[in-house]
TrEMBL record:
It holds the Pfam family TusA. This is UPF0033 domain-containing protein. Residues 1-60 form the UPF0033 domain. It comes from Pseudoroseomonas cervicalis ATCC 49957. It comes from the Bacteria. Residues 38-63 are annotated as: Disordered. InterPro entries: TusA-like, TusA-like_sf.
Length: 63
């Protein structure tokens, strides 16, 4: 479900804009960056936070 929300947010953005996503759980941490990269988006950073969440920054692929 998290990727669906991420995908919808990316679809509404202009190419080159940056999306910040907060992830919880091992599956989203592994799958969302991989899937976003497979779709041509750039993974700018992935940072594990002390509270157990992961901060992911994505740049939407060019048009």
């Amino acid at each position: 479900m998290t990727f669906v929300r991420t995908r919808l947010a990316l679809d509404r953005m202009a190419p080159g804009q940056i999306l910040l996503v907060l992830l919880r759980g091992e599956e989203p941490r592994a799958n969302i960056p991989r899937t976003a990269a497979e779709q041509g988006h750039a993974v700018l950073s992935q940072e594990d936070l002390p509270d157990g969440t992961t901060r992911l920054r994505l740049r939407k692929a060019p048009g």
